[in-house]
Design a protein that fits this description.
Number of helices: 3
Structural class: mainly alpha
Mean pLDDT: 70
Number of domains: 1
Strand content: under 5%
Number of strands: 0
Oligomer: single chain
Low-confidence stretches: none
Radius of gyration: 15 Å
Largest sheet: none
Helix content: over 70%
Length: about 55
């Protein structure tokens, strides 16, 4: 049981780290207003923002 919860916490930590990276990328994209809507649309279409798992 302890090992399973330890693995779960590691996965949760990894997921939050990936989410933080994604948020940073979105901030950078949003700063460039001309391309922001197009790039966010592309990210969403490429699999509901797969960037969370592929960074």
């Amino acid at each position: 049981m302890f090992a399973a919860s330890k693995i779960f916490l590691k996965a949760l930590d990894y997921g939050s780290e990936q989410l933080n990276r994604l948020m940073e990328r979105l901030e950078i994209i949003l700063e460039d207003e001309e391309n922001s809507n197009k790039e966010i649309g592309i990210m969403i279409r490429l699999g509901k923002i797969k960037g969370i798992y592929r960074t």
